[in-house]
Amino acid sequence: MAPAISIPQVLGTTGLFFTGALIMRGAGCAINDLWDRKLDPHVERTRFRPIARGAISPGKALAFTGTQLLAGLGILLQFPYQCLWYGIPSLLLVGSYPLAKRVTYYPQAVLGLTFSWGAIMGFPALGIDLIAESDALMAAAALYASCVSWTVLYDMIYAHMDIRDDVAAGIKSIALRHEHNTKAVLSGLAVAQVALLAAAGVAAGAGPVFFIGSCGSAALTLGIMIRKVHLKSTQSCWWWFKNGCLLTGGGISLGMLLEYFTCRTRGRNDH
């Protein structure tokens, strides 16, 4: 059977998601910098952020954040109305992440729950009713959990850049909690990420192209990153944080794209 979702619909939805992600990431960063304006000056990497160094006042930053949130709402309104019920609750996560680093060594888990929300939003955005379709709900839940694991993984590498300053500033992170067994934790997260991604594929009825392309490339790139990253080197952590997520994300996206076109071709041949 040919996919019910057309190429223009996929491209249009992807464009809206990309724009919305940029806007909401900016809003999340602004909220984070507002909460951390008294902590950032004590961390080498963040002390020159606009609010921390006094280049932008908290009032102006708040106004800017409000503008971004309104723009994000404008993007959300372009989707089916059901997306409002999925999208608006994510604001609670956006606002709570900066607080998490003050009370738990696992703020990256909260970040993962926040950054990965689009994995759920994509289904209703394409007109798929998660409540009515159990297979879609299982696929969305597995994909969301996979993205959470992935986010925690690469942000744990990122957090290693600030370990010394975080101790002095009283900031908690998963890198501090597992400083001496980080690679074991990273490996466990990688296994969870790939396994959950595969589970999402099974629930969605994906074919070999997805499992080889998306799951296989994720396992390969994550394995290389975990092996090669030097956690004591700020430069190495930054390179792998910046490029590792692009390599893994690119492989997953390419596998999904090839799976989509394979399904379309198979559907046409069946007719």
Automatic annotation (TrEMBL):
It is found in: Membrane. GO terms for cellular component: mitochondrial inner membrane. Pathway: Secondary metabolite biosynthesis; terpenoid biosynthesis. InterPro entries: Prenyltransferase, UbiA_prenyltransferase, UbiA_prenylTrfase_CS, UbiA_sf. Its main location: membrane. The keyword S-adenosyl-L-methionine does not apply. Its cofactor is Mg(2+). One of its GO terms (molecular function) is 4-hydroxybenzoate polyprenyltransferase activity. Keywords: Membrane, Transferase, Transmembrane, Transmembrane helix. It holds the Pfam family UbiA. It is a multi-pass membrane protein. GO terms for biological process: terpenoid biosynthetic process; ubiquinone biosynthetic process. CDD domains: PT_UbiA_COQ2. The chain crosses the membrane at residues 16-35, 83-100, 109-131, 137-154, 184-203, 209-226, 238-258. PANTHER family: 4-HYDROXYBENZOATE POLYPRENYLTRANSFERASE, MITOCHONDRIAL (PTHR11048:SF28), PRENYLTRANSFERASES (PTHR11048). Belongs to the UbiA prenyltransferase family. This is Uncharacterized protein. It comes from Aspergillus mulundensis. The lineage of its organism: Eukaryota, Fungi, Dikarya, Ascomycota, Pezizomycotina.
